[in-house]
Amino acid sequence: MSRRRRIYEGKAKILFEGPEPGTIVQYFKDDATAFNNQKRGTITGKGVLNNRISEYIMTKLGEIGVPTHFVRRLNMREQLIKQVEIIPLEVVVRNVVAGSLAQRLGLEEGTALPRSIIEFYYKNDKLGDPMVSEEHITAFGWAATQDLDDIMALALRINDFMVGLFLGVGIRLIDFKIEFGRLYDDQDMMRIVLADEISPDSCRLWDLKTNEKMDKDRFRRDLGGVEEAYQEVARRLGILPEANVQDIKGGSSMH
Fold it and tell me: In this structure, are residues 211 and 110 in contact, taking their beta carbons and an 8 Å threshold?
């Protein structure tokens, strides 16, 4: 295979130039980071699982009419996506109190919120992705008011769908982070589409019965069993045939 041009390397993914104009190949790494890159590690097979889980959710969202950058999965670790202009915002949808919301407002983790809350964070690692308001976003031109309306409407639709999807497999969707991009077509028409990924890296997922954490918080908080938690999410969604666990681990189940 010819050497592909690397466009960008992030904490969990590498982007390569795609085979056709307007496409990009998104490669999922096993690297894990937390606390804005202060904690680093490797979660064996995470890239494979996140590729599959993100493919599954993006496909399902596409089926209900949510526009996404996803085209198709190429192999175990890569998927083909449409090239978009990323809006520099992390959009967090919260259903239950957890993480920074609990710390910031002195609330107890696990408390159901009266309604889903959307928060915006400015995507900037050097600054630690600070929280911003709609005023900041429109004043600094990161997104127009109409863009924000589209983003919020899409975020709530995605949330409604995912809450139901996970509930159906015994998982409570606590909160999640998504990103959006501007997709331009041939006529320079622009629309806002869901970008990046949706996986246990970017969602807080708790077991419905036990409240056991099934996401990256296991890594953040040194709870152990990270690989197993990611595998369990994939298994419940029906996208991890039992036989494939060995493939992911490279033929050995030693931890």
Answer: yes
pLDDT tens track for 23-82: 999 999 999 999 888 899 999 999 999 999 999 999 999 999 999 999 999 999 999 999
SS3 23: strand
Count of domains observed in the chain: 2
Rounded Cα distance between 66 and 69, Å, is: 10
My answer on whether 104 and 163 are in the same domain is yes
Q: Is there a contact between 130 and 121 (Cβ–Cβ < 8 Å)?
A: yes
The DSSP bridge partners found for residue 28 are 13
Query: pLDDT confidence of 3, banded at 50, 70, 90?
Result: confident
In angstroms, rounded to a whole number, what is the distance separating the alpha carbons of residues 55 and 150? 23
On whether the pTM is more than 0.90, the answer is: yes
Q: What is the CATH number of the domain that holds 18?
A: 3.30.200.20
**Does one domain contain both 32 and 73?**
yes
Domain containing residue 139: 85-207
